[in-house]
Amino acid sequence: MIIDNDIQAVAEIGVRLIDDAYLAWLAAETDSELALRAWSADLSGSRSGAYSAYRAALDREEAAARDLERLSELARTCNFVLSGHGNSAEGVS
Predict the structure, then answer these.
(1) Total number of domains constituting the chain
(2) Do 86 and 7 meet the contact criterion of CB atoms below 8 Å apart?
(3) Is 56 inside a domain boundary?
(4) What pTM does this model have?
(5) How many CB atoms are located within 10 Å of the residue 7 CB?
(6) What does R_g of the chain's alpha carbons equal in angstroms?
(7) SS (H, E, C) the chain
(8) Which of 28, 40, 74, 84 is deepest in the core (most CB within 10 A)?
C-alpha cells in the first residue's frame, strides 16, 4: 500500500517533470525560430543547408511538444494530489 507521503512525493516529481518538459519545449521553440530566421535571411546561396537546419530544429520542437502534451495529460493526477484533493491511494488513478 502506498502511503500519503509517497503519493505526495510522486506528485511533486511529476510536476517537476512537466516543468522540465516545458523548458525543453521552450528551448526547442527558440532554436526553431532562430533557424527559421537564419534560413529566411540566408542570401549566400546555401539556403538548402539553412533549410535543413530549420527542418531539424522544427522536428526537435515537435518532438518536445509531443512530450510536453503527454506529460501534461499525466500531470493532471499530480496536480489533483498537490491541491489537497487526493490524499489517499484511492484518489490517484
Answers:
(1) 1
(2) yes
(3) yes
(4) 0.71
(5) 20
(6) 20
(7) CCCHHHHHHHHHHHHHHHHHHHHHHHHHHHHHHHHHHHHHHCCCCCHHHHHHHHHHHHHHHHHHHHHHHHHHHHHHHHHHHHCCCCCCHHHCC
(8) 28
